[in-house]
Amino acid sequence: SLYSGFSQEKSNNPLKNVFQIIEEEPEWITYDRWGTAIPEGKFAAKIGFEGFQEALKKYGGENAKEDWDKIMERMTGEGGLSDAASALTSLALREDKLAIITLLKYWRSLPVVLKNGAALNEPFSKVIDEVNASEDPITNKFVLNWLNMLCFLLQGLPSEGTMCAVIAYMLNDWYKPDVILDFPKGGSGAIIEALVRGITKHDGCDVVLNTHVEEILLDDKGQAAGVRATLTRGSDKGEKTYFAKDAVISNVDQVMMRRLVPRGKHEKFDEAFDTLMEETPNLASFIHLHAGIDATGLPSISEELPGQWAYVREWECEGGIEAPRNCVLVSCPSLIDPSLAPEGKHVIHAYTPATEPWEWWKDLDPKSEEYRKKKEEAADCLWSAVEQYIPDARQRSIKSVEQIGTPLTHARFLRRAEGSYGPRIEAGKGALANHKTPIKKLWQCGDFSFPGIGVPAASAGGAVVANSILSLRQHLRMLDKISLPE
Predict the structure, then answer these.
(1) Backbone dihedral region of 428: left (phi > 0), alpha (psi from -120 to 50 degrees) or beta?
(2) 11: Cβ–Cβ under 8 A, 6 or more apart, which residues?
(3) What's the CA gap between 128 and 87, in Å, rounded?
(4) pLDDT one-digit tens code per residue, 234-245
(5) Model confidence over 308-338: pLDDT tens digits?
(6) Strands 248-250 and 442-444: what pairing?
(7) What are the E-state strand segments in 255-340?
(8) Residue 105: CB partners within 8 Å, gap ≥ 6?
(9) Distance (Å, whole) CA 101 – CA 113
(10) How does residue 85 score in pLDDT terms, banded at 50, 70 and 90?
(11) Which one-letter DSSP state was computed for residue 442?
(12) Local confidence band at 2 (pLDDT 50, 70, 90 cut-offs)
């Protein structure tokens, strides 16, 4: 897959801040185009202010630029929501009273955050409603649809459910003058390798792979004491117990967490997680296409063939942007980093973000002919999205490496209940779980806890848990390594 972020020497992207702290960062490759194939047309303008202004004029029609400016003024005006969303690093947070001290390290930024804090937690649709309540409302459908798509791609929900903080941060960076994107050399795996190096460079620290946690163990005081796991490969395979010195930290979803603590072991945990499971609906799942194609005659990364693109089949359909198989994201990372594919070849990844119903797949036997045919049917819409920029992509495909992932794939390999993309928590209508659990020394992070879905959010949540376990002095020492925008 293709992970990218904004290329800045100083950043408050939580993932990049983590790299600064652990002093292990991938090498970055920069690029500046993002493609879009939507009902109005297809374009791959340069990201940033100038490129999008051209797209607004060509595809947005009458009043598009004026209506876009109304939103940008509301979001990115001095001291406004975007400034507030970008003012602090989330890595300053911890879940105890000492957070007051770590936040005060950034005291110059606190006023704008405090002023806009409540608004940042509200749905982005409220900002649109506020603008529309004025004497000069937004009437351009292209602008409204575009904003809805951005919300969906960022958090798996339309504007009615997306936290304003998410879109405020994105609008502030994506549409700046002269902005570019960066991509880890070696692909997303380079991010994992950097995080692993941050652990294994310390004596006695390791990352254990091919290991399924079967149970979270409690001591005689009812505190988390370790985990019982099964090593699935290698000469040492079999059951093994790992004991925890300070804490057990889990990033699985709530259904899996519920299964890892046997019922009856901790009454308060049983009550809390039964309630969480009842009150936390899931987003839908994915379908994925991973393929290798013949690159003969294809252009290098350009407006004609960008490194990644979004495809939206229809705006006005039942379910809108969330309709099954209506929106597909595609990436061709070997256009950016040629080392990711053999010479003369490209790798392709296409997927539907949080729109594939579990119910369509849950009763199928993964070894059956029915399942195989249903996978081929699902891949058709993904190939259609790829073909927006590579019209003969199916003919170029190297069948021996072509793979199709389904909700059952996600449930099996990622241990996700119903193969879910994450929790369907709408801004202003619900709350994500806390990082603390009723069991002492047992913490949870990942997308089913604050701040939710996405690589930056998951990075921030994990860091908040780590900060809370560390001493104040250790936390402050880590924050000294972070370079933030002034």
Answers:
(1) left
(2) 5, 17, 483, 484, 485
(3) 23
(4) 888 899 999 999
(5) 999 999 999 999 999 999 999 999 999 999 9
(6) parallel
(7) 288-294, 308-312, 327-331
(8) 92, 476, 479
(9) 16
(10) confident
(11) E
(12) very low
